[in-house]
Specification:
The chain has about 350 residues and is an alpha/beta fold. The chain is built from 7 helices and 10 strands.
């Protein structure tokens, strides 16, 4: 049975990511959290099948065809949402920071985790994430704090996954999905729990999006090669065509890169007219033909996005939209992989 949120939260649940935060803040502010996570308590889950949360949301244009299944579980690790430049809780987020919790739920859980809500139950832990500045430390002291923050964050994610496995999984196949900082932790999680381990037979697919994935990290886990491959990894990082950031140029390996329109290692250049739908500023609007996708040296290139007001969109790093540019494509692909896994069993089909 689901734990129902107060009626005002339910009314706002179906709204877009620009929900009126002022109405939700009092609800979040009254929640009592401890300093360390206790994953037996639903408050420490941003998404959980036993409560209504933004991951349950479905864009209005596709609701009529929405037929959810519980054949598999989705363990989703959210990206950085601790963004306050003053670092009010130091280098690591606090569960007591209701503004960050609210930001998490009505940005990434709504706009990213919801992609997977038709194929299985979604579990997304809250964790003491590293502050956004942890990616750009200014000196050795800051570097030490940042590394400690990332380690604390991973230990929370690990603890939540262990709790999930012990109390909720019950032998179900698993999808690992993540973005940005979440993918940094998911890369470690896959190595520790799945790679060359018995649990790898339960892995439907891992979507490790927004971070470089070194294929040499793993022994048994490989990049997905076909749209219906299972037991494998999909990953991409989206940039404007021709743009290579300094951090990509300095990478010592060529990251796994999956084309999120073709899903095939043999089809690496797909135009935007094959993209059936992005979900952008308005969650309840699905916009087709926004971007294409071209694999390039460990990253994904696309032309400037095509949507109303896109002339104002000046950035060449499309990191924040890695999932949302390809919302409908990912949604369709994960369903295809689940069907393939349930049909073929636990054999790897890279």
């Amino acid at each position: 049975m689901k734990l129902f949120l107060p009626i005002i939260a339910l009314l706002l649940l179906s709204s877009c990511s620009q929900s009126n935060y002022a109405k939700l803040e009092p609800l979040y502010a009254q929640e009592a959290f401890a300093d360390a996570p206790e994953y037996s308590n639903l408050q420490y889950w941003a998404a959980h099948p036993d409560k209504n949360d933004p991951s349950d949301s479905v864009p209005a244009p596709i609701k009529a065809g929405y037929h959810p299944s519980t054949n598999v579980d989705v363990f989703f690790i959210h990206p950085t949402t601790y963004l306050d430049s003053t670092k009010p809780y130091g280098w690591s987020a606090s569960f007591k920071d209701y503004k960050t919790n609210l930001q998490t739920d009505y940005t990434t859980i709504l706009n990213q985790a919801s992609i997977f809500n038709e194929v299985g139950r979604i579990f997304a832990p809250r964790y003491r994430q590293a502050h956004i500045k942890s990616y750009t430390p200014k000196n050795k002291i800051d570097t030490g704090y940042a590394l400690a923050a990332f380690e604390l964050a991973y230990q929370d994610v690990k603890k939540s996954f262990e709790y999930y496995m012990e109390h909720y999984n019950n032998g179900k196949p698993i999808i690992i999905a993540s973005h940005s900082q979440g993918s940094s932790h998911a890369i470690r999680l896959l190595k520790e729990f799945f790679d060359n381990k018995p649990l790898s037979k339960k892995l439907v697919v891992a979507y490790l999006v927004g971070m470089p994935v070194d294929p040499a990290t793993y022994t048994s886990l490989k990049a997905c090669e076909k749209p219906n491959s299972t037991g494998c990894i999909c990953s991409w990082r989206t940039f404007h065509e021709g743009y290579v950031t300094e951090f990509v140029a300095k990478e010592k390996f060529k990251s796994i890169v999956t084309n999120p329109l073709s899903w095939s290692s043999n089809i690496t250049d797909v135009n935007r007219y094959e993209n059936t739908g992005a979900v952008l500023y308005n969650f309840n609007k699905v916009t087709p033909f926004v971007v294409g996708a071209t694999n390039h040296e460990g990253i994904l290139w696309t032309e400037k996005p095509h949507f109303l007001g896109s002339f104002l969109y000046k950035t060449e790093n499309y990191h924040i939209a890695d999932y949302n540019f390809y919302y409908m494509s990912v949604r369709k692909n994960v369903a295809e992989r689940v069907n393939s896994y349930l049909t073929t069993g636990s054999e790897f089909t890279h």
